[in-house]
């Protein structure tokens, strides 16, 4: 090309004379040039096509397939959680649901409004939905509605082309048949949070309808329960319309977890608590397996499954019974007189003869102070001291042997201990001694501290689980450790250093409490030969002027009871703590009696309970629903937004750490009654309550009149 | 050459181009049939009918005498120019850009008509120009004016693709007319400098975007790079022999945009593979080769320029379209002649073919009269 053109240009510019012939020549040459260029381009195009169609064929075939084929995960059915008899505590039920992926929604406001009218959502539900959309990050599916009837479900399915980002599907929903009864034990599930997804980039986590364990056993055993997702390969158009199903892989349901829990008992105990705020723990005296671990009131984990609504949340938070706190594991209470059977073992170990009698004139004088007993018990021996819950006996004996002889035994029996239980978060409380007080308060241990601690007041705080374990150890004579997983009992600790005779003293005392002339004879089992032994406790919450059923709920005494049955061959140990339930015999012991009755004669126990529930307004679930409806009517859409997942978790943690039951309110000794304070008397020693300032003074430290 | 078995009017037709074109159109109709999900409607049948209508038109054109062509060159140019202005006015009234006139039975794009007409009018101009003036400014300025008015009108529509097609068609006629080569070198240099400036100042945002995306289609696979990417996937996944008739997932599942018009080659290549692609390219090479042979077979300057320009106009369609679908050029709305569904482009291309057929007729009668 170049030589031709140069000759052209030189000739034309120099020669100036251009003839028709020259132009014809020029046309010939230039047409060849253009033709050649065109041919070159043709070859280039053919080469390019060969390159992409032959050399890169594999790559583009893959891309074409990934266009054509849409792989959608089918969330696996979550593994069941069973009780010891194989009854499900957590299961799945089929569910028509609608989810929404905010990222794919074109017009969120219109979509929400449209869904609202299709699914007949009320203003509260619409508000919750908008909250969830706002909180979610784009890729996270948001649950619009679950448990839909088929009509509503198909109404959404038909409108799908106008609602991009909306995903109706048939799936499975976690279901807890006994609802609130297992809330604290099992926890709950919810959609994976953005944080979860950042930690584990498993596409399953952002599959609509997939839930992860958020608390309790659901969280602890997440990997076991999760299962393997199924997959559906479909041919889809560019707009996402499914043309046909290509293949399908079924999901593999997650593994089952079998617990030592007796589902019926758990449910019964939860319902038996009724309107109280209480914890019930039942331990198997043969294996240490936990048969019931109940804290009520609780939330309904079924309503947590799809995320918590504003109103529900507000209601839970405002409840002074603290439904979010697992009181069985994290509630700490002064054990009061329930410590006494344990104390007798410590006293015997320290050389006290169980036959030795102490005269109870109605109180005990320590120096210039007088500690008042509940009654004038006269002369009592060790067994009688348990039966009548005589404080004077324990004060005088504790003063003799010192509390440092008692604290190790308390620990040996499980108080102040944390147990190896999966999926639980326990608080271990306090079994005080001189070293502990010095460390914590920089103050020396006083004789008054010993006296208070000996009757389970003052610095002592324990959890209901610890009380149940203590009872089981006293009843069985073995260092049982509690366990939750069926078939995997925790190995017992070192043997207890007590002789059969020493244990018999404590057991005899407890037998007499219920079956003799003790404090809980009203709660005797009505089961013929099967009898229960036990001990009541009444733990003072604050320095009271008067006792019993007075004042506002928050300042009433805690009511406690520990017991085991049958007395001849202990099988079950129980502990009941009723917050602000007044006397141990009044609130806690009847619950323990009925729970124990359930274990031997369920029909009789149900009869008792169903009669009671009629006066309470139905089952806990029914009562919660009624309260919620009333609440909706009252508050409407005015409740503040819930906050995200982590905020919910934080609130639960906060409730868990609520110090109210023990420390914040300050405690005073159970049955200590003091002389009226004398003016001018100097305080002798420090308050037994960790925060005595809360109500001026702890019980045992007011100086008596000189 | 003439068989006594075939009537003379039939035998006289240039079958060496009609048969390849028929093959292309049949192939195109097959692809359209598949793209419609195995249906003659809405595209395949229409495609066929149009071809035969416009083939009739081309044969009529081929009977027109050279003198008539020359006489009508300027009037036709004027009419099309008026139509272009008319489109511009209607678009201005209706708000937004409009490229076509609704004639009732079909929509007409005057800018399409301008592609062969600019070739015709320039061929006439250079035929009239005395050879001695070929190297002077008088060879260039009027030609530039003839080009600038319609090209400008088309570009402000805005239809950059057609505007470039008209400009290239004209440039090739000017080149073939024998003007000094250094003009082209100079113009090329100026264009090399001006192009970046124009790119950043004159082009519309969406046009600029297309160029950026062409340079890096993967940068925005769901946005503006989508067309190029999906088209390349369609061609690339076809392999040697294709996925088989009716099995093109890219076109059938709507991943490929404009599967029946601008991207029909990708639709074809997905189902027919490399072999189908080579068939199309070779058939075009044959048709264009016939065009060049016709152009070089005449000594008449008007006929030479006319045929050469028409060949290039058809070539420009094919070249730009194929480069676009293979990811070698930015996305411009230029259909593939004889395969893409669409009346205007079919008409333009058949006008070009008809004109070349006319030149072939003049050659033959000229040769006969000489003999």
TrEMBL record, chain A:
Please report the stretch or stretches of sequence annotated as the Penicillin-binding protein dimerisation domain. 74-245
Protein's GO biological process:
cell wall organization; peptidoglycan biosynthetic process; proteolysis; regulation of cell shape
Residue numbers spanned by region Disordered = 654-706
User: What keywords were assigned to this record?
Assistant: Carboxypeptidase, Cell inner membrane, Cell membrane, Cell shape, Cell wall biogenesis/degradation, Hydrolase, Membrane, Peptidoglycan synthesis, Protease, Transmembrane, Transmembrane helix
Keyword Heme attributed: no
Q: Determine if Mitochondrion is one of this entry's keywords.
A: no
Q: Where in the cell is it found?
A: Cell membrane; Membrane
Every Penicillin-binding protein transpeptidase domain range: 279-596
Q: Classify the protein's membrane topology as the record does.
A: Single-pass membrane protein
> Where is it found, in Gene Ontology cellular component terms?
plasma membrane
Under InterPro entries, the record lists: Beta-lactam/transpept (IPR050515), Beta-lactam/transpept-like (IPR012338), PBP_dimer (IPR005311), PBP_dimer_sf (IPR036138), PCN-bd_Tpept (IPR001460), Penicillin-binding_protein_2 (IPR017790)
One Pfam assignment: PBP_dimer
* Start-end of Low complexity biased regions: 680-695
Query: What are its E.C. numbers?
Result: 3.4.16.4
GO MF annotations, alphabetized: penicillin binding; peptidoglycan L,D-transpeptidase activity; serine-type D-Ala-D-Ala carboxypeptidase activity
Record PANTHER family:
PEPTIDOGLYCAN D,D-TRANSPEPTIDASE (PTHR30627), PEPTIDOGLYCAN D,D-TRANSPEPTIDASE MRDA (PTHR30627:SF2)
Q: What is this protein called?
A: Penicillin-binding protein 2
Organism of this sequence: Novosphingobium piscinae
For this protein's source organism, the top of the classification is: Bacteria, Pseudomonadati, Pseudomonadota, Alphaproteobacteria, Sphingomonadales
Annotated gene = mrdA
Automatic annotation (TrEMBL), chain B:
Record InterPro entries: FtsW/RodA, RodA/MrdB
Q: Name one GO cellular component term.
A: plasma membrane
User: What taxonomic classification does the UniProt entry list for its organism?
Assistant: Bacteria, Pseudomonadati, Pseudomonadota, Alphaproteobacteria, Sphingomonadales
Q: Domain of life of the organism in this record?
A: Bacteria
Q: Which family does it belong to?
A: Belongs to the SEDS family. MrdB/RodA subfamily.
Per UniProt, which keywords does this protein have? Answer: Cell inner membrane, Cell membrane, Cell shape, Cell wall biogenesis/degradation, Glycosyltransferase, Membrane, Peptidoglycan synthesis, Transferase, Transmembrane, Transmembrane helix
Q: Please state what class of enzyme this protein is.
A: transferase
Entry-linked PANTHER family: CELL CYCLE PROTEIN, PEPTIDOGLYCAN GLYCOSYLTRANSFERASE MRDB
Q: Which gene encodes it?
A: rodA
One biological process term from GO is:
cell division
Transmembrane among keywords: yes
Keyword Mitochondrion: yes or no? no
**Where does it live in the cell?**
Cell inner membrane; Membrane
**Entry membrane topology:** Multi-pass membrane protein
Q: Which GO molecular function, any one, fits this protein according to its record?
A: lipid-linked peptidoglycan transporter activity
- Do you know which NCBIfam families this protein is assigned to? rodA_shape
- UniProt name for this protein: Peptidoglycan glycosyltransferase MrdB
